[in-house]
Amino acid sequence: MRTGAARARKSVERRCDFIPWNARQGIIFGLVMEFLQTRRVFVGVLALGLFTMAARSVTDPDVWWHLRTGQLIVQTHAVFHTDPYSFTRFGQPWIDHEWLSQVLIFALYRLAGWGGLIAGFGAVVAGAFLLVFLRCPGRPYVAGVITLLGAFASAPSWGVRPQMLTLLLASVLLLILERSYQRPKLLWWTPALMLLWVNLHAGYALGIGLMALFLVGDALDVAFGFEGGPPSSARFRTLALVIVVCAAVVALNPYGASMYAYPLETLRSRAMQSYIGEWFSPDFHQSRYLPTLVMILATVALAALSPRRLRPREILLLSVTTYAGLRSVRHIPIYALIAIPILSAMVLAWLQERAVARRFEWKQTPLTRAKTLLNAVLLAGFLVFLVARVRYVTHRQAETEAKELPAGAVSFIAAQRPPAPILNHYNWGGYFIWRLYPEYHVYIDGRADLYGDAFMNDLATTYYLRGDSWRIPFATWRIRTVVLPPDAPLVTALRALPDWETIYADNQAVILSKKEQQGF
Q: Are 142 and 348 in contact (CB under 8 A)?
């Protein structure tokens, strides 16, 4: 019996039979010519360029324990509530706030290997910034240039990591919030978005924070009598109600109400802000942070020079996210999501004042055969370059792993089985979990929230030989093997002691083993 889909397809085929073949060729040719308009090709090149920028080697030190955790969740059909990986926190409560992201990461890896992860997260990042592009006035050229500037500013934080899913969901949320001024019912999509978000990453708190800032900003717009369509009272009430619903939805995760406090506890951790690079403030002496500085300075300058006045809501959003970006590199991508459309609007207004903006307007003009061919070659060239880039990065993943991580040392441990417990470097714990668990448990890994500030401080004291207390962890945990970078102060100290010997060394790591069970 013929299915409904088959009947519908047959019906379409019969209708198409009435269209002469030459006419059908003309329709297809027209669609191709429409797609190859210069402005549309520009958008296509922008999308491919963003994808190419985001397709990079897997180097984040946490991806390895994400892979292992995703694997174990898939195998056991259960999430973790206590720590299974370390001997220093084994069995203690653990909120795995990224559990669904880890399942996704492992699924991509199992289905398509490193190439799947590289391409998948490249698409996530590119999608986030294409949504920002859609929020910008001055499309395509002005918006495209400013979007690229924001992409360069946030690029140091990109990678195969759950935070990129938060970036995408934040971009979706901002699009909903801005479009809801014309279509308030769009706000009712946010609870579903929040349900997904809270199970992917604790960055869900950013979503509630953005909605709250929009609510306060709308109130400020009304209070200051800002012209240009203040929000209706009905939309204001809907947004307030939606925030309450989204806050209630947060509890719908494997860890229940504990997820309410988790983001705040992370933000309050002084140890994370002191020892983890992405929590540091951006160092503008480094070239990779110059696009962020350019964006901030350009926004300040155009706020004074552009004829477009900033709304109170925009000032509030910019102020909060600029502060967050200056406080922590980790927050620069969120600043970019807010700043790109505002900066684009101010640049467009400045150009319009000088009667230059009409050059950037979207006008469909007939294309010559030469320009059409050039546009097709340009688009195809970028597509080929993207495919080649993904293949190249994927092919070099093993080499990158050996360069960035102690691959040789871990292979030595797996083969020679030095005695446990092992004291490992903070950034290497996740890699040990992927390569050596369950045969070996780690001293520490990237789950800084699990270990706590006091433990992180004690590790820093030991690593840098601060005072006499650096010896305490060796006695407390009866450490038998140490795996650290060659330039670690602790390595120098242990090499000088008679009861420790070097059993492995390369450019990445040194392994030292205790000769016999005795005190210092």
A: yes
